From TrEMBL, chain A:
It comes from Nonomuraea phyllanthi. GO terms for biological process: rhamnose transmembrane transport. Keywords: Signal. Residues 59-316 form the Periplasmic binding protein domain. The keyword Signal applies. SUPFAM superfamilies: Periplasmic binding protein-like I. Residues 1-24 form the signal peptide. GO terms for molecular function: carbohydrate binding. GO terms for cellular component: outer membrane-bounded periplasmic space. It is found in: Cell envelope. This is Rhamnose ABC transporter substrate-binding protein. InterPro entries: Bact_Solute-Bind_Prot2 (IPR050555), Peripla_BP_I (IPR028082), RhaS (IPR013459), SBP_2_dom (IPR025997).
Length: 359, 355
């Protein structure tokens, strides 16, 4: 016993020292210093817009989770782009959408000395330290779909601006309901950042005089779960019998709502729009449950992200505002503020054009 | 004259009391009361909750969970648990949908049968792990929860089967009604009655309870414990397979993540329905009512315009309230019955036997 007690003290002391050291390592000023350091590093490397795209670039796509149809399509577009410019694209990633599992993938990719990592972050901050290590090892980082904190990547390829998405969905529904009546939103989870940003812009759009006869009565949350989205749709129809339309800015929500409406007496009377994929909603557009909905083209998103990664790795761009690069069939893009590249306006799908798309 | 009248009255009173006794002894009483309160209160606030269309929706919503809860009960009464059901549902839903989408010539009935067999095979894996290899059920089925889901992921490879890919005849199974009752609810009801009868009347059913009450005693009594446990898991797997096809028909959009996390809903339904989690007691009727109560609560919260951010917490609170109500009622009834039995046996004026 007597020999043990001092041991405990030492251990405790050592633990405390370690703890304080660990806390010291992540102070805000440190992060800021690192951020400014990387910023100066980025600006000191000169961009050569005429540099050719290097051959044999290894580009890794790290989606939020594999087995997610949306990312399968997006990364398919990215791998296709890589083939076009003579590079080599591959998709790796966790089967659960968690930041911690992404971190271990980033570390592996860093050790494999990839030329570029294209990532959809499960958490904007948790993946940053690992990405900084990758960048320190000379790997170019492009985020797509879901951004990381700006210091964790060189360029963010934004699928569509939140503002465009929010406002155009309201415009789509307003046309369908004749600019009047009660409307509701069927969202994913209450704490989904992108959903909430879109919803804020929807509310803002609804304040315009054009929509003075439209009233947003409820924001329901289907948690991106089929059953819950079904139940919430039923709840909306029961508690607001005179509901004119529903906006569902989530692919799971809109599919569940469409499936429910297509069998209910409200089919065609309660309008439904939102974000969905053409394959998922083809049947419901054809049977009259949905008039029109919208989405960006995920294959184009992956395609553009792939070209952005190649442009970075070849030295055509450094991620600074105003730099331009060519993205194959999509044409030329300019990097905006905070290293953002915008894919473009969302595509509207309706009965006339839905058969032109297969994703 | 007076004597006969009194006797007649006593008999009537006894008959009445016997009926009350019998009702009070029904284990599922608490859950029925909770259901009554839920529908009564919600219906009073918003009468459309009790409309035919709404009730039909609730029946449809609960059909799949109810069927899974019935299967789970088979396993839970043997003092085991099957956490892998949601993965089996996912595997079966995706498999069925994929066959229907890629091979439209295959008859729907064959696909359904195939899914049930697939589910039964998954159940057999669980059963052999638990029954033959003696791995604790919690661990074994936690492992297969991931294993089956992993197979599903590998098989799907990110693919999604959409409503437009599946034949209309199949999708309509998920929404069609027979005599005003949704087909899926009728399937769930048929399964419920069949399993309920088996558990109550057949030797195979009674032995499951015996195993759950005391595994050692069951072995000493000569019950083929291993075989019965494997059979319970296989039956549960088959029901999960059937539930998977129902899922595909109902929701129309199927990918590898179907039903993720639903195992907890199923186990909650079973526990709410009064099935003892340590085995040996409880009925499938209770489990099915539990599923109905859980879906009823979710539907009611959606109809009552409850704030979305508070819904999950309220859902949990109502769940606890339902279980507490059930426990309190059960204890009170048990105490009352004990008291009466005591009075009856000590009162010399009455025959000891209540009959």
């Amino acid at each position: 016993m007597t020999t043990r007690t001092p041991w405990r003290h030492t251990a405790l002391l050592a633990g405390l020292v370690l703890l304080t050291a660990a806390c010291g390592g992540t102070t805000k000023s440190d992060v800021e210093q690192q951020a400014s350091a990387s910023a100066t590093a980025a600006s000191s490397a000169a961009a050569d817009p005429n540099a050719p795209i290097k051959q044999g670039l290894k580009i890794a796509f790290l989606p939020k989770q594999v087995n997610n149809p949306y990312f399968t399509i997006a990364n398919g577009g990215g791998i296709e782009a890589a083939k076009e410019f003579g590079g080599e694209g591959k998709e790796v990633g966790p089967s659960d959408a968690s930041a911690s599992s992404q971190v271990s993938y980033i570390n592996t990719l860093t050790q494999q000395k990839q030329d570029a990592i294209v990532i959809a972050a499960n958490d904007p901050n948790a993946v940053v330290p690992a990405l900084k290590q990758a960048m320190a090892a000379g790997i170019k980082v492009v985020s797509y779909d879901s951004d990381t904190a700006p210091e964790g990547r060189h360029v963010f390829v934004n699928q569509a601006s939140a503002e465009d998405l929010g406002r155009t969905q309201v415009q789509l529904l307003a046309e369908q309901v004749g600019h009047k009546g009660k409307i509701a939103i069927l969202s994913a989870t209450p704490n989904a950042t992108n959903q909430n940003t879109w919803i804020e812009f929807m509310k803002d759009e609804l304040k315009k005089p054009d929509y003075k006869d439209m009233e947003l009565v409820k924001v329901a949350y289907g948690n991106d779960d089929d059953q819950k989205s079904f139940t919430e749709t039923q709840g909306l129809l029961r508690s607001y019998p005179d509901l004119a339309g529903i906006i569902s800015p989530t692919t799971v929500g809109i599919a569940a709502a469409a499936r429910y409406l297509s069998d209910s007496p409200s089919k065609g009377k309660v309008k439904l729009t939102g974000l969905g994929t053409p394959n998922q909603l083809r049947k419901f557009v054809k049977d009259g449950t949905i008039e029109a909905f919208e989405l960006w083209n995920p294959a184009d998103l992956g395609y553009l992200a792939s070209y952005a990664a190649a442009a970075l790795a070849s030295g055509q761009v450094t991620g600074a505002e105003g730099e331009k690069f060519k993205a194959g069939k999509l044409g030329e893009y300019t990097i905006g503020a905070k290293g953002e590249v915008l894919l473009g306006k969302p595509t509207v799908f309706n009965e006339d054009n839905i058969d032109d798309f297969d994703f | 004259m007076t004597a006969t009248a009194t006797t007649g009255e006593t008999m009537r009173r006894n008959g009445g009391r016997r009926l009350v006794d019998r009702v009070a002894r029904v284990r599922e009483l608490g859950i029925v009361v909770a259901l009554g309160v839920l529908f009564g209160v919600t219906g009073a606030v918003n009468p459309s909750f009790l409309s035919y269309a709404s009730l039909r929706d609730i029946l449809l919503n609960s059909a799949i969970v109810a069927m899974l809860a019935v299967g789970q009960t088979l396993v839970v009464v043997t003092r085991n648990v099957d956490l892998s059901v949601s993965s089996v549902v996912g595997l079966s839903a995706f498999g069925g949908a994929l066959i229907l989408a890629d091979h439209p010539g295959v008859p729907v009935a064959v696909v359904i049968a195939g899914c049930v067999v697939l589910g039964a095979l998954c159940g057999a894996v669980n059963g052999l792990l638990v029954g033959a290899a003696k791995v604790p059920a919690l661990v074994a089925t936690l492992g297969t929860l991931y294993a089956f889901r992993g197979i599903d992921y590998a098989w799907a490879g990110g693919r999604q089967v959409n409503a437009a890919d599946m034949p209309e005849g199949f999708l309509s199974l998920g929404s069609r009604s027979v005599l005003g009752v949704p087909l899926l609810a009728l399937v769930a009801l048929a399964v419920l009655l069949a399993v309920g009868w088996t558990l109550g009347n057949l030797r195979a059913g009674r032995e499951l309870y015996a195993i759950g009450s005391s595994p050692e005693a069951a072995v000493l009594a000569g019950i083929a414990v291993r075989r019965r446990i494997v059979a319970a898991f296989v039956a549960n797997g088959a029901l999960a397979g059937l539930a998977g096809v129902m899922w595909a028909a109902r929701f129309g959009t199927v990918d590898a993540t179907v039903a993720t996390g639903k195992e907890l809903d199923v186990i909650a339904a079973v526990v709410v329905g009064g099935v003892a989690i340590f085995g040996g007691s409880g009925s499938v009727y209770g489990a099915a009512l539990g599923a109905l109560l859980l879906t009823g609560i979710t539907s009611a919260l959606a109809v009552l315009r409850v704030d979305a951010l508070a819904q999950t917490a309220i859902n949990g609170a109502l769940l606890i309230a339902a279980i507490v109500l059930d426990r309190v009622l059960a204890l009170r009834v048990a105490a009352a019955l004990r008291r009466r039995r005591y009075h009856e046996t000590t009162d010399p004026g009455r025959p000891a036997d209540g009959r």
